[in-house]
Amino acid sequence: MPAESEMVVILATGSEVLDAALATGGGWRLGGRVLYREAVAPKAARAGASVVVLACSLPGHVDLSEVVYALRRRDVRVILLAGDRETCDRGLLHRVVGLGVYDLLFDPVRPEEVARAIRQPAGFAGVAAWLEGKTAPLTATMPRGGQSDKKTLPAKAGCRPGEGTRPGKSIPPGRDGWPEETAPAGVRYEVGDEGCAAVAETAAAYRVTPEAAAGPPTRPPGHGPGSAVGARLIVFASPRAGVGRSFLALAFGIWLAGQGKEVVVLDLDGGTAPSGAAWRAKGPSRGGGSLFVHPSGLQSVRLDRPFDAATEEGTARLMNDLASSFGTVLVTLPEAGPALTRQILTRAERVFLVATPERPVLYDVQREFYHYRRLGLDVARVQLVLNRRGRRFLVRLNEVGALLPPALCTIVPEAGSSAEAALRGRRFRQCMADLDREAGTDAAGGNVAFARGWAGWKGRSLAPDGS
Q1: What is the domain extent for residue 111?
Q2: Percentage of the chain with pLDDT > 70?
Q3: Does a structural domain hold residue 275?
Q4: Which distant-in-sequence residues (6+ apart) come within 8 Å of 76 by Cβ?
Q5: Are residues 199 and 127 part of one domain?
Q6: Is residue 90 included in any domain, yes or no?
Q7: 404 and 303 share a domain?
Q8: Total structural domains within the chain
Q9: Mean pLDDT value across residues 356-370
Q10: What pLDDT, in 10s, does the model give residues 438-448?
């Protein structure tokens, strides 16, 4: 952080009284005042600003979080005047915290408080309590260029080019490294009724047949009781419902079984087995492995002993039974909350955090990582799984590197004419191979930051070669 005498401060408070109080005697150099949102980022760039004092009430047509993003990607610290503590835009505050803005000042704002924030930057611990007490709405998303619920303001007389506000003018998408991505038409990622039907189609294509859930799973040869050494526990979690974690777990299980491994998918979401029955696959491909998929909750699946998910002892017993029966255990979890989730997460060797809605929500992902850290989970064992839109999401994630692990795993969807063709596609095979290496289930090990393929359910047809 530069010394106070070297700091250049831009004031975008919208208050002449506050600006006048901060303009002199602070020990820093004033880079200028800004009256409209659109002028903040250009002004800060020209003045070489290190700190911007920004008010949520500042008028303008562009979304305020776009302004914050443009500043943070240039390592400009932002002090946000958030307004009233009870009526402020909580979704906006969650988003800017995800971009690394920790100096949040609520009304009434006094000049000495702002001056202290300029001299002494706050850390994430300062807003952690506020984040835990205030839940962001699920509809909160990162901004998209050209979209705003702010009214268009008339151009300000006397402004330099680019500093005023013209009707319909906004920060253009892509100027700050935000490539516009459009999802393939018709591709769905939720695991609702249609998702279950698609999983059933995939299962049929790979000879995965439903069987009565009342009987215990057959123990694969060489995996009897006491052979839990070497068994791997891999978790597919997500911060929100309906993002495809059940399908990803099933597809990955099919892939591993095809490599000759004995795999069980413990689906606590209930999206993989739509009929409520267990699913069984014997040798779905050349490898000769096997896959067993338990329905949600395992209430009707008998293992060696009864399973009670409500107790830590029951969870430990379940994990031990599965580990002694199968070489690889894949678990789908809704979110880091219940005791069952905590027990499984702390035992996992690798956690794939699946964040593939149409618009990934930065705060949801950040909150999930925050839960992991509170549980004592080593976040270096967590890989983030994104869909095609996630490529532009990655740019924003890089801005919060202090909160997220450096290694990321993005999965780019390629639509297929059918589930069978998609799973046999070259891109899908490459994707599963990359996940295999990242999870450490192959002999070679390794670390893959970007997986290069992903199969969607519907949409454009695949190439004749299945790619």
Answers
A1: 4-133
A2: 38
A3: yes
A4: 44, 49, 50, 51, 52
A5: no
A6: yes
A7: yes
A8: 2
A9: 66
A10: 666 543 322 22
